[in-house]
């Protein structure tokens, strides 16, 4: 019996890319429904959201107050539970996938499951390669009980075990938008689940209008997020850091190094350098209620 999959796409001011993604997924037999959770988009997005709502198998939920991506992801989780689906596939609105993407992920998941140890289960599996306009992003990898794993994956294009997500309480809505996927992966690892990768599967996704910068012969990806986003990125990563160090010191150090490098390069390259620098520095302070 093939597993049934609920897809959730949180949106904010979506454009035609959303319809392209839905079209990408239209031929995937394993998908039972697509849930679009809109995070208080402006009226300019009405035509796209209206068009999506008229498609068979697509449910659109619209909110009047912006609350961040985690709320939308959790609405997808609720929909999956209500439908009795065992898997939740999450996407950003601007991602693109090739035909057979879902079946490839499920095949990789089944293959990895055959390698499970008695004490390890897969909580999420994601494409091993994320293709951005600036280049490819690959995760640091290792093998655990024969399974290709990493510590965290971006949520777009990731296939989550519904039971595992329920055990960790779903996605942390207090984080808003940044590091929501990192927090979920951390909680899964703490609960004894593996964060797995599907070799040979790739996703097209824009990582914050990223660009590749060469430093001492090494290519480093630098995102072009706004000052406000940089503040929440730094703040949320620092919030997760103690638990990350407890669970995996190596990964915690690697994450903080990446955030530091990204913040520094954002402050000395590109546009709005001073504003981005102030945004990153403001993330060092606790957010006021």
Q: Could you explain the architecture of this structure?
A:
It is a single chain. With about 290 residues, this protein is α/β, with parallel strands linked by helices. The protein has 2 domains: about 5-205, Spore Coat Polysaccharide Biosynthesis Protein SpsA, Chain A; about 210-280. The protein contains 9 helices and 12 strands. Strands 1, 2, 3, 4, 5, 6, 7, 8, 9 and 10 form a 10-stranded mixed sheet that branches. A two-stranded antiparallel ribbon has the order 11-12. Strand 1, helix 1 (about 15-25) and strand 2 form a beta-alpha-beta unit. Helix 6 runs parallel beside helix 7 (about 225-245). The N and C termini lie far apart (about 50 Å).
Give the gist of this structure:
The protein has 289 residues and is α/β, with parallel strands linked by helices. The protein has nine helices and twelve strands.
Secondary structure blueprint with pairings:
Blueprint: E1 5-11, H1 16-25, E2 31-38, H2 46-53, E3 58-62, H3 69-83, E4 87-90, H4 101-113, E5 121-132, E6 135-138, E7 142-144, E8 147-150, E9 158-161, H5 162-167, H6 180-190, E10 193-204, E11 211-215, E12 218-222, H7 227-247, H8 249-268, H9 273-282
Parallel strand pairs: 1-2, 1-4, 2-3, 5-10
Antiparallel strand pairs: 4-9, 5-6, 5-9, 7-8, 8-10, 11-12
Helix pairs in contact: 6-7, 7-8, 7-9, 8-9
